[in-house]
Design a protein that fits this description.
- 58% of the residues lie in helices and 11% in strands.
- The chain contains nine helices and five strands.
- Helix 5 crosses helix 9.
- The structure holds CO-5-methoxybenzimidazolylcobamide (B1M).
- CO-5-methoxybenzimidazolylcobamide (B1M) binds next to helix 3, helix 4, helix 5, strand 3 and strand 4.
Length: 212
């Protein structure tokens, strides 16, 4: 089994100690941080998601995997931030109301900071008006929303409707992302962009900011 596979397996076991050891070993072996993230940590988490769906594992195992993911992200985070450049603009980001899944949102925030954006992270379970009030107060041009539950996806629509009601759509652009979402859903609710993953999210936000 290669190192990335070992990382994915340790993720599935929720074994934070082994994750720490394997990640340091992978970095010593000069594996790319993005490769470790995608093909180690996220690959392992995807298996957890599938097994949870099939009722082969239960919430405690998912929680352990989430903890291991945080340990891994803490190790990789400085490596994504090292190329920091002067601010490209301000982004308000959060996981929508009713939803506490924040691993993907945190990854997007890390990548955005690494690409030179100033990120105001509102955390999870964020009410629609909190996104808008913060963006207005802090003069942010972008609101980024994450949702992992199908039941919380409609909250994104509420934010976009409230922006329209306040005459702010156009001035403040929106991007949405999260496992159950799609470009079609983004179009349906009138979001300005949809990010499939953290890398695509950064590309989309660069385009939104530059107006292209
Ligand atoms: Co829960 N959970 N969970 N969970 N969980 C899912 C989402 C689920 C699909 C599992 C399953 O059934 N297979 C399912 C949702 C089903 C549905 O809605 N149809 C589910 C459920 C049901 C629940 C609970 C309701 C369980 C319960 O209590 N009975 C509960 C909900 C609590 C709540 O939110 N109110 C719950 C709780 C939890 C934990 C707390 C245990 C934990 C979260 C810990 C945390 O986030 N701090 C957890 C986890 C870990 C998962 C799975 C297994 C993994 C999610 C994850 O972190 N993936 C998940 C299964 C799955 O998604 N397949 C599942 C890794 C992460 C890197 O990917 O978040 O998709 P992701 O982010 C990606 C992209 O989506 C994108 O970029 C990221 C990087 O590539 N992206 C964006 C994300 N946000 C973006 C924003 C952007 C752009 C791109 O622009 C702004």
């Amino acid at each position: 089994m290669d190192l990335l596979e070992q990382i994915a397996v340790a993720m599935q076991r929720g074994d934070s100690d082994t994750i720490g050891q394997l990640l340091r070993q992978a970095l010593d072996n000069e594996l790319a941080p993005k490769d470790i993230l995608d093909n180690g940590l996220i690959a392992g988490m995807n298996v957890i998601g599938d097994r949870y769906k099939k009722h082969e594992i239960f919430l405690p195992e998912v929680l352990l995997a989430a903890k291991a993911m945080h340990v891994g992200m803490d190790i990789l985070k400085p490596l994504f931030l090292k190329d920091e450049v002067p601010s490209r603009g301000r982004v308000v980001i959060g996981t929508v109301q009713g939803d506490i899944h924040d691993i993907g949102k945190n990854l997007v925030a890390i990548m955005l900071r690494g690409a030179g954006f100033e990120v105001i992270d509102l955390g999870n379970d964020v009410a629609p008006n909190k996104f808008i009030d913060t963006a207005v107060e802090r003069n942010a041009k972008i609101i980024g929303m994450s949702a992992l539950l199908t039941t919380t996806m409609p909250v994104m629509k509420k934010v976009i409707e409230q922006l329209k009601e306040k005459g702010l759509n156009g001035r403040i652009k929106t991007i949405i992302g999260g496992a159950p979402l799609s470009g079609e859903f983004a179009e349906h609710i009138g979001a300005d962009a949809y990010g499939y993953d953290s890398v695509q999210a950064v590309d989309c936000i660069k385009k939104l900011v530059s107006g292209s």
